[in-house]
Predict the structure.
Amino acid sequence: MRLTKKDILLLVLIGGVGTVLSDILEFFSIKYTQATNFALLYRTVTIFTVIFAWVFFGEKITRRKSLLLLMIFSGSFLFATSGAGISLSLGDIFAILVALVNAFFFNILLKHACSNIHPFVAASGTFFAGFLPIIFLTAAQNAIRPPVNASLIFLMTVINILLILFRNKAYTIASASYVSMIFSLTPVLVAALSFTFLGESLTAVQILGGILIISSGILTEKLKI
């Protein structure tokens, strides 16, 4: 499949503009708020995706979908905070903006790109389109340093491209809302791996939150949201 100028511009827009904008907003978010707040508020990416998918793709927002969104966010709240609550700050606005940017560029525009571009090409193109400006900005700040573990960096690069590829492949066979809602399982999977390999513990409230998230994922699949 040959890429048109429009395809290339779209990949540059997603990878270049989307990645740089997301990274800048994430930097300010983490600087001015707590990691717990960011972990929770970033889950609004699913809500933004559902809204954008309704606007741009005509995907319906049904009662079932709204209920599942409520389950996902409630589970994410319990999982991120252990039910202790959060105190809002200026950085929380940046966290929500990160979610909004990622929903638009990497869920909506990327799904649109995958309708005309092979998932592997879209994955590689957006990754390197985002990688180059980040390297340029880092060099401009004289912050480039020799890698401590080049082999690990290479491995993480390959894994990152593969993850984008799998997501892009999902976009070719499923709705943007469905993919985003299924990806809400990510924090639970990370926690399960951390518990298994790093010995990290989970509270009863976090386990309850994880159950809500997993249940919403199962229902998303069963109901074909």
Remarks:
- Residues 5-32 form the longest helix (28 residues).
- Residues 5-223 form one domain.
- The chain has a mean pLDDT of 88.
- The radius of gyration is 18 Å.
